[in-house]
Amino acid sequence: MRYFSCRTSQYPWFDGVDGLVFSSGKLLAFALLLTLAGCAGSSQPDPTEVSFSLGATKGLNPNSKGEPSPAVVQIYELAQTSVFEGAQFSELFYDGRKTLGGDLLGAVALTLKPGEEITRDYKFSSQTKFLGILVGYRDIANAKWREVVAVESEDSNDVVVTVDALSVSVAVDDSWF
Predict the structure, then answer these.
(1) What distance in Å separates the CA atoms of residue 159 and residue 76, rounded to the nearest whole number?
(2) Does residue 18 register a pLDDT over 80?
(3) Is it the case that residue 131 has pLDDT exceeding 90?
(4) For the chain, how far is it from start to end, CA to CA, in angstroms?
(5) At which of 12, 28, 43 does a domain end?
(6) 109/38 same-domain check
(7) Do 36 and 112 belong together in one domain?
C-alpha cells in the first residue's frame, strides 16, 4: 500500500499529518505575531488638559478716570517660550500667529470683566509645553501684561490666573485633593 505525503503541498505552513504538531507551533507563533501587531498600532497621544480658574479684581484695567473696565485675556499654547517672552505687546496681541510662528500651537481669547471669575476646561495639543498668558490693559506701558507657565504634556493641569488692576499672575495648582 502506498501512502501519499502532503509535504510537497502548496501550503508551506502545513507539513502534513506527520508534521501537525510542528505546524501547530508555527500557527501559534503566527497567532501571537498577529496579536502583538494589533497592540502596536499607532494611537493618538493624549491631549494636554487644562482647567483654568480666571479671576479678576474689582479694580481691573482702570480707564483714564480710574474706573474699572473689562480686559481681553489671550491664552497661547506654546512649544517654546523665548519668542513669546521677547516680543512686544502689539506684536503678540494683534499678530500673534505671525510673531510666534512654529512656537504657537493654538490660542484662546476671553473677555474678563472686573470682579468676574471664570472656570474653563480646555484640551490642548499634546505638544503644548507652556501656556503664555497676555492681558490687554489700557495702560500697557505701566502694566505687567505677560506671564508664562509650564504645563505637563499629555496630562491634566489646574491653572489659576489672577488678573489685577495692572498685573497678571499665574500659578499651577499641584494639590491632588
Answers:
(1) 13
(2) no
(3) yes
(4) 82
(5) 43
(6) no
(7) no
